[in-house]
UniProtKB/TrEMBL annotation:
Low complexity bias: start-end ranges: 316-328, 348-361, 369-412
Cellular-component GO terms for this entry: cytosol; enterobactin synthetase complex
Gene3D superfamilies per record: 3.40.50.980
InterPro entries reported for this sequence: AMP-dep_synth/lig_dom (IPR000873)
Region span, Disordered: 300-332, 348-412
Domain AMP-dependent synthetase/ligase: 11-317
Name of the featured protein: AMP-dependent synthetase/ligase domain-containing protein
GO biological process: amino acid activation for nonribosomal peptide biosynthetic process; enterobactin biosynthetic process
MF annotations from Gene Ontology: 2,3-dihydroxybenzoate-serine ligase activity; phosphopantetheine binding
Length: 412
């Protein structure tokens, strides 16, 4: 929980307990917990020496590699927040995000930086060059300090930066770690673009649980055949993906999903796909939530029968059925299902200039502490915690250019 310190401290505890256990595998490279911790610690000291610390923002612009995990841990060890940048995103979007967010430093490599003009005006620390050593680190970020800033898709206007605190991130990870029952024998395959906020679950959840993070390479995540082979060869036990990717895998490689805990979200899942996935996997969990409430807000296990519900709230969040103005419906006709972050509402990088929506938190109808975001997705009648999503009415706020993976797209 947030009372136990920031999540990178939980990782350090795992590294101290099992230093020689494999922490990370990415293509042909593997790092133990000791190696990952030492590399992140050294980089964190270099970041502090360059002025990065609590209250500052560091852009992380890296391809899918072991260095990506090293970098995000290092930024948090330095007490700073990271700004995820996927080099594959359009240059115009990257330029806007960098200009709007104003990072004090960029962690990148020479080839990535050369291809991104937006980074030319930002001081850079190149990870393909020797990282200079620096004095040791002291202190932790405060719970209210920013852990990361992530930009929405901009589907309803220009992308907005959502600032998530260390406390909110810790609350989310503590709940998901327990809910998913992650342990040292798990192999968590990460496939999501770093620019999509659900990637933060994939990077941190296994490492704070003593499990193994299997970071799928750039080409693998775009090829269902290669991804299926990775699932089999790595002994994967957990993977998170959108219904689009799950549809491709369960259609072409259902045998690769046996023994897998499948996490689905980012798009509404159809009853037909839920039934097929529930039959092909060890366990199927549906996740829902807007970016502003820290990645996911609700979760439920699906058994493949009926219309898939979005589930019950994660720790310190509460959904309610309301009108677009955040006025509660009692009893509720079909309405917007809003999520309230009851302890640590997200901030945005700019003041809202429009009516309340998912990017402009407003006081929650649940009480004085939470912040309410709407619209998220249309709800049916009945208890909000069991509300269902509709493929034709989902309007959730999400980061990245698209929630979908770049695999061959088929109807779900």
């Amino acid at each position: 929980t947030p009372d136990d310190g920031p999540p990178h401290r939980w990782f350090e505890q795992r590294a101290a307990a099992h230093p020689d256990r494999t922490a990370l595998v990415c293509e042909d490279r593997a790092l133990t917990y000791r190696e990952l911790d030492e590399q992140a610690e050294r980089l964190a000291r270099a970041l502090r020496a360059r002025g990065a610390g609590p209250g500052s923002l560091v852009a992380v612009a890296l391809r899918r590699s072991a260095e990506l995990a090293v970098a995000v841990l290092a930024v948090h060890k330095a007490g700073a927040a990271y700004l995820p940048i996927d080099p594959a995103y359009p240059a115009e979007r990257i330029g806007y995000v960098v200009e709007d967010a104003g990072p004090v430093l960029a962690l990148t490599t020479t080839d990535v930086a050369d291809g991104l003009p937006a980074l030319h005006a930002v001081p850079r620390l190149l990870l393909d060059e020797p990282v200079p050593d620096a004095p040791g680190l002291t202190g932790d970020p405060a719970p209210a300090d920013a852990a990361y800033t992530i930009y929405t898709s901009g589907s309803t206007g220009r992308p907005k930066g959502v600032v998530i605190s260390f406390a909110a991130f810790a609350n989310f990870l503590a709940d998901l770690r327990e809910r998913l029952e992650l342990g040292e024998e798990d192999r968590f395959v990460a496939v999501t673009t770093f620019g999509f906020d659900i990637a933060n679950l994939e990077l941190f959840a296994p490492l704070i649980s003593g499990a193994r993070l299997v970071l799928a390479g750039h080409d693998t995540v775009r090829d269902p055949d290669a991804l299926a082979a990775l699932l089999t060869d790595s002994g994967a036990t957990v993977m998170q993906a959108t219904p689009t990717l799950w549809h491709a895998l369960v259609t072409e490689h259902p045998q690769a999903l046996a023994g897998l805990h499948a996490l689905t979200g980012g798009e509404a899942i159809s009853p037909a796909l839920a039934a097929r996935l529930a039959a092909a996997t060890r366990k199927l969990t549906n996740l829902y939530g807007p970016t502003e409430t820290t990645i996911w807000s609700t979760a439920t296990e699906l058994d493949g029968t009926g219309t898939p519900p979005i589930g019950r709230p994660l720790g310190a969040t509460a959904p309610t059925s309301s009108a677009p103005t955040c006025t509660p419906y009692r009893p509720a006709p079909p309405a917007s299902c809003t999520s309230a972050a009851s302890a640590w509402p997200a901030a945005t990088t700019a003041a809202p200039a429009s009516p309340p929506n998912a990017s402009s938190p407003t006081p929650s109808p649940l009480g004085p502490a939470p912040a309410c975001t709407a619209p998220a997705t249309w709800c049916g009648r009945g208890p909000t915690a069991r509300s269902t999503t509709s493929a034709g009415s989902t309007t959730r706020s999400r980061c990245a250019a698209s929630a979908s993976n770049s695999v061959r797209s088929r109807p779900c």
